[in-house]
Write a structure and sequence with these properties.
The protein has helices at about 15-20, 40-45; strands spanning about 5, 25, 30, 50-55. It has a single domain (about 5-55), classed as Alpha-Beta Plaits, CATH 3.30.70.20. By secondary structure, it is α+β, with helices and mostly antiparallel strands. The protein is built from 2 helices and 4 strands; from the N terminus they run βαββαβ. It has a two-stranded antiparallel ribbon with strand order 1-4. A two-stranded antiparallel ribbon has the order 2-3.
Length: about 55
């Protein structure tokens, strides 16, 4: 199951930089491409506010 980014996102870009498959794109909040996401949790580990979570 892919991760999603909640409205808690502060737009810092840490999740995008931490994604090994570049599945995250800039937006408000940032957006995770569910088809590209490998469910590794790297985005959640790098986010300072815990915005990415499993869908």
């Amino acid at each position: 199951m892919a991760y999603v980014i909640s409205s808690e996102c502060i737009g810092c870009g840490a999740c995008a930089a931490g994604c090994p498959v570049e599945a995250i794109s800039e937006g408000s909040p940032y957006v995770i491409d569910a088809d590209a996401c490998i469910d590794c949790g790297a985005c959640a580990d790098t986010c300072p506010v815990g915005a990415p979570a499993e869908a």
